[in-house]
């Protein structure tokens, strides 16, 4: 089995999960829009899934060297970090002080997949034989966090 099989499967899974999150957002759109912090979380969920889809699509492009892939993944990860942090900053400005501790935890959690992507990209840049192994936890952590976010925007919002 090759890494191509893994990345192909994960691209499909990321696309399917992004579609399900999008449907969840559509179903609860009025409630989500009414709560800006939750709207930010909904967008972060989609962003993480689209980032996984994009990064693993990059890793499937034939004929690229590891350093070329590393640069591309690093650019995607940097853009994702910027977008995630912009959304998190918006949440920090409006959140009730009583729940700032939860938001602090969320701020750290939402960064985990991108940190792992940056590590994978760095190892690709130096053509390390271990570079692709960083994308497994990045993908799994990204899926886990995106699914937790999806749970919040589809189930917890109804409570």
Overall description:
With 159 residues, the protein is mostly helical. It has one domain (3-158). Helix content is 81%, strand content 0%. The chain has six helices and no strands. Helix 1 (3-27) packs antiparallel against helix 3, helix 3 (36-58) runs antiparallel to helix 4 (66-94) and helix 5 runs antiparallel to helix 6 (135-154). The N and C termini lie far apart (45 Å).
What is the succession of H and E elements? Answer: HHHHHH
**Helix percentage:** over 70%
What about the largest sheet?
Answer: none
Mean pLDDT: 92
What's the tally of helices? 6
- How many strand segments? 0
Low-confidence stretches: none
Number of domains: 1
Shape: globular
What is the element layout, followed by pairings?
Layout: H1 3-27, H2 29-34, H3 36-58, H4 66-94, H5 100-125, H6 135-154
List keywords for this structure.
mainly alpha, globular, 6 helices, 159 residues, 81% helix, 0% strand
Short description:
This protein has 159 residues and is an all-alpha fold. Helices cover 81% and strands 0% of the residues.
């Amino acid at each position: 089995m090759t890494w191509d099989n893994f990345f192909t499967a994960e691209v499909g899974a990321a696309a399917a999960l992004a579609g399900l999150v999008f449907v969840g957002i559509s179903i609860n759109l009025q409630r989500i829009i009414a709560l800006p912090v939750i709207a930010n979380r909904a967008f972060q969920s989609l962003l993480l899934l689209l980032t996984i889809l994009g990064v693993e699509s990059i890793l499937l492009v034939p004929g690229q060297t590891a350093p070329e892939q590393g640069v591309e993944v690093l650019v995607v990860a940097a853009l994702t970090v910027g977008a995630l942090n912009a959304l998190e900053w918006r949440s920090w400005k409006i959140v009730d002080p009583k729940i700032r501790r939860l938001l602090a935890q969320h701020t750290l959690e939402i960064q985990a997949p991108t940190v792992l992507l940056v590590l994978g990209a760095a190892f690709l840049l130096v053509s390390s034989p271990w570079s692709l192994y960083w994308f497994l936890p990045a993908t799994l952590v990204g899926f886990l966090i995106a699914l937790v976010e999806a749970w919040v925007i589809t189930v917890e919002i109804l409570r």
